[in-house]
Amino acid sequence: MLLTRPADGVPPVVETPAALRAAADALAAGTGPVAVDTERASGYRYSQRAYLVQLRREGAGTALVDPVALDGRLEPLVTALDGTEWVLHAASQDLPCLAELDLRPSRLFDTELAGRLAGFERVSLGALVERVLGYQLEKGHSAVDWSRRPLPEDWLVYAALDVELLISLREAMHAELQRQGKLDWALEEFEAVRTTEPPAPRAEPWRRTSGIHRVRSPRQLAAVRSLWEARDAVARDRDLAPSRVLPDSAIVQAAQVSPKTEAELVALPVFGGRQQRRRASTWLQALRAARRLPADELPAPASANDGPPPTNRWADRDPDAAARLSAARTALSEIAERNTLPTENLLLPDLVRRTCWSPPENRDVESVAALLRAKGAREWQISLTADALSRALRTESADPRM
To answer: Strand 52-58 to strand 61-65: parallel, antiparallel, or no bridges (unpaired)?
Structure first.
């Protein structure tokens, strides 16, 4: 059945302190868990702030809260939600922008993660709702500019539908996980998501520029860095997504060509547009700064990496490590298949690689379990994998060179 409208209609957007207090009172008087979702303006704005917060609770209905109109001051909502269980889909995407509003769950149920642990192949909200509840959601506005005001009616319908069935989905997935004997695993995972600190900023974020692999020399890399930093400053100042200020492809091309005059710059694709002509002096200044750098200040060809090398080089650099990784992957794949789990949810691939490259001195089960625990693995993961991983770490290469 296609669901095109919320059962109770679309509520008015909460955009005044009085309306916020009324919505908070209604939510506080409701019962059971609270469905929560947010809408951001990724691809349009520099910030990842929430431009709309959707909430729904039994007995309270749905609330659509505009944190921008309220200047981010949602104290009544913070109080109303204190101590409640939140239901989110792919919670790690929403929790950071909710934390900016001082909204943090006391308990969490993540329906997307529940679907993964249940072994479902498709775990989008629409796919789960259709499979588990038999409804199809009206979709189509996930990638729109949610910073736009006023928000169109059909966008608000979409936003309200995102929390319309979330509590029912939570109940169904809770029962499914219990049936499969995975509920305790899921509760550990939900708590890990709830309590995980946001990652530290990347040391050299400019190295993620798309197409940077085509840039060869340190001088050209310096130009990429300089242009990236100039673009980032403009994007932050204007609260625009960096790609809307200058695409990565233009940065890479300018670094390769290294234009020295405005005429040379605007002759390049993208830079000849009206918007880029207005910023030509900014881009030329960035390129000049890169050209003037002394050799000892040029960036290294590759970023510093505290992890193991790419796995396609292991056989040459450390055949025993390659043999350990192969054995570990085979063993973990078998465990995941037996338990109907994605292998990446059984144990993080990066943790497996690091453990196989630099195993503990003692490779018994207890030592391996201690290492996994120290690296953030959950107890259910350790209980399933420590023994098999311990055996894999004792694998040696059959390479005749060793």
So the answer is: antiparallel
